[in-house]
Amino acid sequence: METFESRWERYRGLVEEGLEHFLPSEDEYPQSLYSAMRYAVFTGGKRLRPVLTLATAEAFGSDPKLLLPQAVAIELIHTFTLVHDDLPDIDDDDFRRGKPTVHKVFGNAIAILTGDALFALAFKVALAGSLSDSLKVRLLREINNALCYRGVIEGQVADIESLSKEPTYEDMLFIHTHKTGKLIEASVVIGAIGAGAKEEEVADMRRYAKNIGLAFQIMDDILDAVGDESKVGKRLRKDFNKASAVRILGLEGARREMNRLVDEAIGTVDRVLGKRGAFLKSMAEFIRSRTY
């Protein structure tokens, strides 16, 4: 019987194979771009978002491999956001996952174009595979909705602008549910839609995803405040001047809110999927207890 860890590794292995398949070889011209794209993608990472896509699809009775192109597209988009987030004019981070960020290795111009290329490739990959064209378009629409309008990009802008004012709880909620939560939401929802879940089941899984997405970012804020930099893999104690949950709610208040969201997410999956949702419930617990 699979454990939570072994099942995660099974999904993660599929994602790694998919990324290897769809990414250009660094031997192709222009090598600088393709090397930077592969560096950005293959510097580690939990692959949480594509794993959620595959796990949700399997929980609803589908072969997860059928959703692999769309799961890979989600990871390419996530990596694009990280590459651009790390740039000097945004978060100005020197390390990501314990390794120098893309702009520190390849320069700012190539880093910007690397993010652009990953973003563009994601939409090509999302249309690959054996799903029907109509279903691919529906999944692509869900992915696009996660980005803009009222998606990740707006969340990133609001995050930057929070530096110039005293942020409120509403600011924090908008930033966290958009900058981080929207892509996690799309990851789960495309798995459910792609597997043929009923509309009411898709709506329930969207609620689950919104809760774990917000919980994930609140846990990021907690780790930024009290985490171990060697485990987290990037510079910490840098978000106190932003709309951080810890800044606004306090450390214990942030923990209470994160726990409430995780408990609600677990309850939703238990009601919709029962035993079939065991991995997704364990994923929520992982978010509650993670140290990196």
Give a short synopsis of this structure.
The protein is mostly helical and 292 residues long. It has 14 helices and 2 strands.
Topology record:
Blueprint: H1 4-22, H2 31-41, H3 48-59, H4 68-85, E1 95-96, E2 99-100, H5 102-106, H6 108-126, H7 133-147, H8 152-161, H9 169-194, H10 199-226, H11 229-232, H12 245-249, H13 251-273, H14 278-289
Antiparallel strand pairs: 1-2
Q: What is the string of SSEs from the N terminus onward?
A: HHHHEEHHHHHHHHHH
Q: Quick check: average pLDDT? A: 94
Based on CA inertia axes, which overall geometry fits? Answer: globular
Which residues sit in consecutive blocks of at least 5 with pLDDT less than 50? none
Count of separate structural domains? 1
Strand order of the largest sheet: 1-2
State the end-to-end distance: 27 Å
Q: How much β-strand is present in the residues? A: under 5%
| Count of DSSP-assigned helices | 14
Structural class: mainly alpha
In angstroms, what is the radius of gyration? 18 Å
Query: What is the top-level CATH class?
Result: Mainly Alpha
- Which architecture name does CATH use? Orthogonal Bundle
State the major sheet: 2 strands, antiparallel
CATH topology: Farnesyl Diphosphate Synthase
Instruction: Let me know the CATH homologous superfamily.
Output: Farnesyl Diphosphate Synthase
Helix % is over 70%
Strands, total number: 2
